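Quarterly update from the structural biology core.
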Amino acid sequence: MSDIVLLHAFPLSPEMWREQVRHLGGTRVLTPALGGFAGLPRGTVTMTDMAEDVAAAMSAAGVERATVAGVSMGGYVALELVARHPARVARLLLADTRPGADSAETAQGREEQAARALADGPSALADELVVKLLGTTTLRERPDLAAEVKGWIGVAPRDAFAGAQRGMAARRDRSALLPTITVPTAVVVGAEDVITPPDVARAMAAAIPGATLHVIDRAGHLANLEAPEAWNAALDALLQR
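Predicted structure, tokenized:
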């Protein structure tokens, strides 16, 4: 089986991949911490910076080529890795993400959140973020998971939070890359995702030759945590291609 690289969402950590790591058993899985989430202050970290970090982590682990899966910010980084190091990506899974750049309004909102995180800490933003990151079903039926995600947000380093927000605001539009992707690709999205809704995923899948689309019921932006069995099944299907 292919080596696997899992790229986490903002503003979380590789801990979000616990269900996938457990599911994959003895497969070699790399779950790098992106940007300042590795615990070292770095200021603004672009998607290019993160992609180069991932390539370096793969090299350090002796992984030349791997199946690469990214959620949200991790999806932006995965696309950047495809653009910069296409030979290193054997298969691609893009989950709850989008290829386009931020609008001016979204970029401004990121800057405002970055400033608030630096001043008051990410915990001050946890309540408003968790209701966007998780689907309505999860919020209603799994308060334990909602509390856990809020806790993860609260312990995120201030500079990592701000640096990643600013890096995402500055990211390139990678829509033109999609038709050039030739490796087996899966697009996965939670049916209740309000950040990158299913319509965004459908358009992205349609633009990638041969891509499969998986819409996961009863899940939001963090579908790999909210509905791990369905998410893992989508990954398994990709690994068979």
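The beta strands are 4-7, 29-30, 66-71, 89-95, 185-190, 212-216.
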